[in-house]
Each structure stands twice: as C-alpha cells, then as structure tokens.
Amino acid sequence: MSKTLFEKIIDREIPAGFVHEDELCVAIKDVNPQAPMHVLVIPRKPMPRLCDAVPEDQALLGHLLMVANKVAADAGYGEAYRVVINNGAGSGQTVFHLHLHVVGGRPLKWPPG
Ligand code: AMP
C-alpha cells in the first residue's frame, strides 16, 4: 500500500516544521495555517479516520490529546486553543491519516463553520 502524506512526512521524505516527536506521534506546523498557531498532531500509526480506531487505540488517542496540550502550552497558547478532528470527507477531512488540528492565537468563534 502506498504511504499517506503524513507517513512520508514522518519518514522525512517530505519536509515539515516539526514541533514535537515521540515514539507514538509527531506534531508539525500546518502548511496552510488558519491561525497564528496551527499544529497537526499525527500518530505514527496510520489510522485513516478517528472512526477507524479500535479499543487498542485508546491509550494512543489519550496520548495525542496530551501532546496537543503540550504543543499549545509550548506555543504560549495553553489557556485558549481548539482541538479539531475532521472525520471523513463530509467533515472536511482531506488527508486520510488521523490528525488533530491544534489551533490558537486568535479569537475562535463557535459554532465552527
Ligand atoms: P484535514 O483537511 O482535516 O484532513 O487536514 C489536513 C491538513 O493538512 C490541512 O490543514 C492542510 O493544510 C495540511 N497539510 C497538507 N499538506 C501538508 C504538508 N505537506 N505539511 C503540513 N501540513 C499539510
């Protein structure tokens, strides 16, 4: 099977702005930022969508949220940021390798578009 875009980034075949890396995931700057901070937290395991998660992924999913916390705090936005997961094409997902958008640094409206 061909690699996802994010697998290629994880394997350093495509350049990206890494802000975090550990044994389970990486975090990179989004190439098309929607706010002053826009980081993607990406598991090394190439799960296409959140709805493809299985019970064994529970700890990994919790870890991704803790990394989102860390990257937001490291960027100076730990008190006001948003975590978004687009699940499926109908929600706006374009890269089918699970990722968390961590967005902050400007007022964020609710409900989102
Ligand atoms: P989604 O639409 O939820 O699947 O989000 C995919 C995100 O990946 C978008 O916000 C894109 O801007 C971002 N993206 C696409 N290609 C790259 C890349 N090469 N490096 C960093 N971010 C990317």
Q: What is the element layout, followed by pairings?
A:
Blueprint lengths: L4 H6 L7 E4 L3 E5 L7 E7 L14 H17 L6 E4 L15 E5 L9
Antiparallel strand pairs: 1-2, 2-3, 3-5, 4-5
Adenosine monophosphate (AMP) binds next to loops.
- Number of E-state strands: 5
**Sequence stretches where pLDDT stays below 50 over 5 or more residues:** none
Based on CA inertia axes, which overall geometry fits?
globular
Gyration radius over CA: 14 Å
Ligands bound to this protein structure: adenosine monophosphate
**Mean pLDDT reading:** 97
**Strand portion, in percent?**
15-25%
- Helix and strand pattern: HEEEHEE
The number of distinct helices, counting runs of at least 4 residues, comes to 2
Describe this structure in words.
This protein has 113 residues and is α+β, with helices and mostly antiparallel strands. Helices cover 20% and strands 22% of the residues. The chain is built from two helices and five strands, in the order αβββαββ. It has helices at residues 5-10, 58-74; strands at 18-21, 25-29, 37-43, 81-84, 100-104. It has a five-stranded antiparallel beta sheet, with helices on one face. β1 (18-21) and β2 form a beta hairpin. The longest helix has 17 residues, at 58-74. The structure holds adenosine monophosphate (AMP). Residues 5, 14, 16, 28, 30-32, 40, 86, 92-95 line the site of adenosine monophosphate. The site of adenosine monophosphate (AMP) has 13 residues, from loops.
